[in-house]
TrEMBL record:
This is Proteasome assembly chaperone 2. It comes from the Eukaryota. It comes from Furnarius figulus. It is found in: Nucleus. The gene is Psmg2. GO terms for cellular component: cytosol; nucleus. Belongs to the PSMG2 family. One of its GO terms (biological process) is proteasome assembly. The keyword Chaperone applies. Chaperone protein which promotes assembly of the 20S proteasome as part of a heterodimer with PSMG1. The PSMG1-PSMG2 heterodimer binds to the PSMA5 and PSMA7 proteasome subunits, promotes assembly of the proteasome alpha subunits into the heteroheptameric alpha ring and prevents alpha ring dimerization. PANTHER family: PROTEASOME ASSEMBLY CHAPERONE 2 (PTHR12970). Its main location: nucleus. Keywords: Chaperone, Nucleus, Phosphoprotein. Forms a heterodimer with PSMG1. The PSMG1-PSMG2 heterodimer interacts directly with the PSMA5 and PSMA7 proteasome alpha subunits. The keyword Cytoplasm does not apply.
């Protein structure tokens, strides 16, 4: 299962859009919850006039059996104080559906990085202990950088370290709950700022592709991904025409 966190810049959701559109995934259902703001809209992945009027809602499930892949796309923000009930419902569904692994695509405020996080790549990963046993060595081979823990009391004590993901929405809660429940979960995230976050989405989805090889790698890493038709309405239609 691959899913986004509703986080800064909506980077995870944009990256999920690219996965669904590129792999031409089939919508198989929806994730019913009262924890998200209700919404409805036209088909964001329309390819012709015939399917452009299909309706989409706030949380939908897509499937690609050939790759044993399920994707949950979340399209609206959380209702106040509903983070924990959503996490409990989601992880219960994950266990009940016997999902082997979960990958959460997320983001975090770039301006809140500490000195160590300013160095090198803006991409980070986290693995629950159960997944660490299975793929930890591969992450080392890929030369990926694990999300650093930061001082719990900056300027007072540097010995107490905690996981801090500012702007990450449900990311930390999902991860810590998965650790305690024995769920194999990975978090892939990018430090970014609010704005036109389409470039961040390409970086994050390419990061995911390094590991899972969902799409064939190209010299131009943007050309391997199919842009959803709904993106024409983003950011004043500011995407380069070559991307369509």
């Amino acid at each position: 299962l691959v899913q986004p966190a509703v986080s800064v810049g909506n980077v995870g959701q944009l990256a999920i859009d690219l996965v669904i559109s590129t792999l031409d995934m089939t919508k198989v259902g929806y994730f019913y919850t009262d924890c998200l703001v209700p919404m409805v809209g036209n088909n964001p992945y329309a390819t012709a006039e015939e399917n452009s009027t299909e309706l989409s809602i706030n949380a939908e499930v897509y499937s690609l059996p050939s790759k044993k892949l399920v994707v949950l796309q979340i399209r609206s923000p959380f209702i106040k104080n509903k983070y924990r009930p959503f996490c409990e419902t989601l992880l219960s569904w994950v266990k009940g559906s016997r999902c082997a692994r979960v990958v959460v695509l997320s983001s975090s405020h770039a301006y809140q990085r500490d000195d160590e996080q300013l160095l090198g790549t803006p991409l980070r990963y986290l693995l629950t202990p159960d997944l660490e046993k299975a793929v930890g060595g591969l992450m080392q081979e890929l030369n990926w950088k694990e999300m650093e823990k930061v001082a719990a009391y900056p300027g007072i004590s540097d010995t107490d370290k905690v996981l801090h993901i500012p702007g990450g929405g449900i990311t930390k809660l999902l991860f810590t709950e998965s650790c305690s429940k024995g769920i194999q979960m990975a978090v892939l995230l990018k430090f970014c700022s609010e704005g036109d976050n389409i470039p961040d989405a390409f970086v994050l989805v390419n990061y995911l592709n390094e590991w899972l090889q969902l799409a064939k790698s190209e010299v131009n890493s943007s050309s391997q991904w199919k842009i959803p038709s709904s993106w024409r309405l983003l950011f004043g239609n500011g995407l380069p025409p070559a991307l369509f």
